[in-house]
Amino acid sequence: MAVSIIPVRSEQELTTFVDLPWTVYADQPLWVPPIKSQDRELLTPGAHPFWESARRELYLALRDGRPVGRIAAIVDEKYNAYAGEACGAFGFFECLDDPEAAHALLGEARSWLAAQGMSFMRGPLNPSANYTCGLLVDGFDLPPVIMMPWNPPYYAELLEGWHLRKEQDLFAYLIERDRLSPPDWLREEVDRLKAEARFTCRTSSKATLAADIRTMLEIYRESWAKNWGFSPLSDGEAEHHVKELKGILDPDFFVLFYHNDEPAAGMVALPDMNPLLKRLNGKLGLSALWHWWQAREEIRGGYRIMLFGIKEEFRLLGLPLLLLDYMLEKARSKPDFQWVEGSWVLEDNVAVDDLIEDFSGRITKRYRIYRREISV
Q1: Can you give the three-state secondary structure of the chain, one letter per residue?
Q2: Confidence band (pLDDT; 50, 70, 90) for 6?
Q3: Is the pLDDT of residue 376 over 70?
Q4: From CA 256, how far away is CA 259, in angstroms rounded?
Q5: Would you state the torsion angle of the CA atoms of residues 299, 139, 307, 339, taken in this order, to the nearest 10 degrees?
Q6: Sign of CA pseudo-dihedral 260, 263, 265, 268
Q7: How far apart are CA 346 and CA 74, in angstroms?
Q8: What is the largest CA-CA distance in the chain?
Q9: Among candidates 368, 301, 362, which has minimal Cα distance to 151?
């Protein structure tokens, strides 16, 4: 039977769109199921603040009436105005190993983006670089950490078979407790910077957490403003992130550095909640607390450095070294700590790449952002 592509219009079709990954990943033990209600909110204009300045079309691929793939075509006006581009994104891509269905989905997304006046398409962005993004192309034998994707190897073949090409790679660095041995020169430099006492620092607390997250997001916005693919958060998105992070963030792994009382840098490492998400299997309910209790040791053992930002005027004053050293010293003080993943890091952000490698980090996963001109 031929493949048919339909736009998502009804609530039932949206449910099919949200549920499809459970079909695609039925035999993939490393996949971590998202929470269905959160995915549904993220996909729904009017329910999530991202769509206040963006629009999208969702598509399902059907073979013999059975859903085999999905995709979202996205226009993020806020990003395009900021970057001076006419970028149309594709995201939320999932598909069985069915090249005909995958290419039909991508073609439908391209047609819709062309009608919106976009000049090229980029992805996967779900729905932007401020959320889950990228396609895993190396590191398939490792489980993903919180808010990072995992997909089977054939996904790259599906996208590249449609002539999508690499635009940027994103690295995931692993720093393990038993391998954490910075060289002597680095230790000496950190000690010297501490002795200079140019900066003060503090971890967050329950009382200051919401305000501290807002400060961190402002540092992130300023420090990443010139980086490839940066997309500014709207006020609504920032508040939404504050609400989400408050529920899972460990204040001990949230540090802010100040220079003369001015916020200069910050870092947030989230506990890896994926062992809990695997147990929940997409649903929040009365059993969630029990599942958390069962997964608590795994959660406490691993972290993901999710936000890392240093204002430009302070970067040459040793803050990158102080920031990472502080976080790792805090981690070592926790008896349950085993590892931390720094993800994601742009492949062309050489300064950060080198910094993490100096602190014994090694690349364990690679994610890819693809691009194709819409006229091709």
Answers
A1: CCEEEEECCCHHHHHHHHHCHHHHCCCCCCCCCCCHHHHHHHCCECCEHHHHHEEEEEEEEEECCEEEEEEEEEEEHHHHHHHCCCEEEEEEEEECCCHHHHHHHHHHHHHHHHHCCCCEEEECEECCCCCEECEEEECCCCCCCCCCCCCCCHHHHHHHCCCCEEEEEEEEEEEEHHHCCCCHHHHHHHHHHHHHCCCEEEECCCCCHHHHHHHHHHHHHHHHCCCCCCCCCCHHHHHHHHHHHHCCCCHHHEEEEEECCEEEEEEEEEECCHHHHHHHCCCCCCCHHHHHHHHHHHHHHEEEEEEEEECHHHHHHCHHHHHHHHHHHHHHCCCCCCEEEEEEEECCCHHHHHHHHHCCCEEEEEEEEEEEECCC
A2: very high
A3: no
A4: 10
A5: 40
A6: positive
A7: 22
A8: 71
A9: 368
Q: Which residue has the tokens 């590191």?
A: 139
Please state the rounded mean pLDDT for residues 141-149: 96
CB proximity list for 133: less than 8 A, separation 6 or greater: 91, 123, 124, 125, 126, 149, 170, 344, 367, 369
Q: Is the backbone peptide bond immediately before 344 cis, with ω within 30 degrees of 0?
A: yes
pLDDT value at position 95? Answer: 98
The encoded tokens of residue 234 equal 């709207």
User: pLDDT of 331-369, one tens digit each?
Assistant: 888 888 899 999 999 999 888 888 889 888 999 999 999
Name the amino acid, one letter, at 288.
Answer: A
**The pTM is what?**
0.94
Closest alpha carbon to 155 in 134, 183, 184, 186: 134
- How many residues would you count in the chain? 376
Whether the CB-CB separation of 327 and 267 falls below 8 Å is answered with yes
Token pair listed for 185: 């020169």
